[in-house]
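Contributing new records

If you add data, match the layout below exactly. Sequence lines come first and carry their own label; structure lines follow with theirs. Keep one chain per record. Anything else will be rejected by the validation script.
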Amino acid sequence: MKITEVVCQIVRIPQIEKKTASSQDSVIVRVRTDTGLEGVGEADSSPEMVKAAIDAPFSHNIACGLRQLVVGENPLETERLWMKMYRATMYCGRRSLMITAMSAIDMALWDLKGKHFGEPIHRLLGGKQHDRILAYASILFGKNGKETAAIGRRWREAGYRAVKFGWEPMGQSEALDIELVAGAREGLGPDATLLIDAGCVWDARTALQRAHAFSAYRIGWLEEPLQPDDYDGYKWLRDRSPVPIASGEEECGRQSFRAYIDRQALDVYQVDLSRNGFTDSYYIKQRVEEIGARLCNHCYTSPVTVAASLHWLSTCRDAFLFEDCVEDSPLRHELTHEKVQAIDGWITVPDRPGLGVTLDENFVRRYLISESR
């Protein structure tokens, strides 16, 4: 079996809002073979930038576009192809954008591998340890405490026992920060799990002050309080915080996570399959479990990445929560025929071959703005 084609498609909903929500557009990668099989992947990154990384022509041996590196190869050799792409993009990759583009291809390769063997990806990764996982509704803060409380009530009534609020407008003032968290707790009630995502807004000392203030509202974790490259700050904060510290969603690849893992800087390591692929996410999982920390997925895109995240997280020994994006976006809910969403607060791991989801081609055609092959 050989790869014959790598198709790159960008889909975008018409109404793009100025907010931190990556469920408004997506880059879909389809890897096709001479046997007629197709694997599907996705990257959570700038779609046009990912497309350029895949489409780019050969420059020299360590600065090459990704498509020509995998066409003609055996798609089952996922580890070798990951390292081939990593080596051949050393001058323009190793972190961030190029890794996200590699991750979309890698996800498609694993989807294809599962279809070839007739097995779900979690079985190819060694076997799932959970049939279903408690899901938390992942949503943005309201503009104030009152609006945030209303959002919390909405998702409790929808059956979620855990909700995470994130990003804007946190970080503008101490008073507003506390008002937002107080509103979230009020809306969720006393028994629900409350998670807070600050969105990289403070220095370490301010973050420690907020951690102490927020602990009165019994938050399950404080996510991304610092800038993502402040590894020593995270270590300092984690050693002093009264609440668990979580981070990792910006990280792309095993080398990016190494600085956190080697320092044991986090309580919860959040891995995004659309930025790390299955190949590096498997490695990261082993490292984090080795140091006794916890793993969770990050996912704020489409059902493609939701399914990928479920396959991976279900193989993690201590998986305890699953990020379930509840943005009211057609991309989140209509890209695939299958609805991959929590029911009564629990989300079920797919058991069909590969990712276990199929693209709705009518949806793709309706929202398609760019394509290359």
